[in-house]
Amino acid sequence: MLSLIYLTGSVTFIVGLKMLSNPATARRGNAVAAAGMTLAILGTIFLYEHNGRHLRNYGWITAGLLIGGVIGFLSAKRVKMTAMPEMVSLFNGMGGACAALISVVEFNHMIRAFSGGVEIDHLQLLIVFAGLIIGAVSFAGSVIAWGKLNGNIKDITFGGQHIFNISLLAVMLILSVYVIAAQPPFTGILFALILLLSLVYGVFFVLPIGGADMPVVISLLNSFTGVAAACGGFLYNNPVMLTGGILVGSAGSILTILMCKAMNRSLKNVLIGSFGGTHGGGTAKEQGAYKEISNADMAVVLAYAHKVMIVPGYGLAVAQAQHACHELENLLEARGVEVRYAIHPVAGRMPGHMNVLLAEADVPYEKLLEMEQANGQFNTTDVVLVLGANDVVNPAAKKDPASPIYGMPILEVENARMVVVNKRSMKPGYAGIENDLFFQPKTSMLFGDAKHVLQQLVAEIAQI
């Protein structure tokens, strides 16, 4: 019966992940995978048997499930869409911590068994250390990422940081190989030291990362947690835990590679802990003046356009303006204007942030164009309305070799006939650099809170 439950749980994970690839079935896919996980947990609690003994301590298990379930439910219910990336990062860190704790518990069991004369399996010991290191790095790194996303932790770099990180990693691996190979003397002190070094490495791995690179880091740490969970599945010979960990690890790794391509960055730089760190920018240059456009004039421009492309960014999320944006879209389409959305793969603070934001406002998925599709349509677009996006539309990524984001693929909005950028002010974006787009002749600035501006545009267009 338990084998059948584990098989069912594994299948629901695979089916749920497949359904997540389409917005029309994503919510149902999430529910399917959650149902499989619930079934696997209940099956383990009530049916798992080892050496003729079932699990005990049902009171502690139930208390843990209730406390964790209530905290998770309330956190997910109350979180704002703008805070979703840091919540995802924090929850991912909890998964890494659990995987590391499994390794701690199993190592203690092995020490007791070894003291009783039982020979230790080298492969199992290797898996314990893999789960410990990867889980601890994921936990510490995710906590730092959470702090950086909510603004409490700043980017920190220092000379020789790469060498320091590589040295930490090398010491962890050497100590792990020594403990695995040496067995007697089987010491817990080295194990504790490896755990501490893993936590320190996780901190310094993420500390220098900044700018628009954070989505890649979240994806990479997510894959780490999946691999660490798979190690737990190996230790307990638990197929559903193994399957879930492998799915998360492989999906996170693939997404990390896709994000790196979208940012034109090297995965090698991610692994040595320098990804997206502070770059030495080029010399400051005179940009000239920018021009503003009023809400009334912008309303006329939109009302009489044939094709409008909207580029959502973090500013849209901060203002919670997705519903007002959808209302503007519906109003324009009622007047015969074609409206589409251009989605950069790393817009926002995590992969898919803009897709989730617009799906919350019931924007049809077919109207969301990926970067390559959108770039092919800008030259036939009358007006591009940029809502809070900055670095992902900065032409310096293509034209200025001295720019920190040089080489990053961008949404080529400057190819449209007219570009209007909505921002609160002229402050630079998340990458901390000025945007050349704002000073181009065909660009106009529309200052103000995105939600308030969109509501005003809707009111103005309705009167035309």
Tell how many strands the DSSP assignment holds.
8
Mean pLDDT: 86
Low-confidence spans: pLDDT under 50, at least 5 residues? 273-284
Strand percentage: 5-15%
Q: What string, H for helix and E for strand, traces the elements in order? A: HHEEHHHHHHHHHEHHEHEHEHEEH
- How would you classify the helix and strand content by structural class? alpha/beta
Provide a count of the helices.
Answer: 17
Largest sheet: 6 strands, parallel
Number of domains: 2
Order of strands across the biggest sheet? 5-4-3-6-7-8
Q: Give the overall shape, derived from the CA principal axes.
A: elongated
Radius of gyration: 25 Å
- Report the span from N to C terminus: 67 Å
Helix content: 55-70%
Task: Characterise the protein shown here.
It holds the Pfam family PNTB. Its main location: membrane. It is found in: Cell inner membrane. The protein has helices spanning 2-19, 26-47, 58-78, 84-115, 122-149, 161-182, 188-206, 214-235, 239-263, 267-271, 295-303, 314-318, 322-334, 353-360, 371-375, 396-399, 450-462; strands at residues 49-50, 53-54, 307-312, 338-343, 368-370, 383-387, 418-423, 443-447. It has 17 helices and eight strands. The radius of gyration is 25 Å and the shape is elongated. It has 464 residues and is of the alpha/beta class. α16 links the parallel β6 (383-387) and β7.
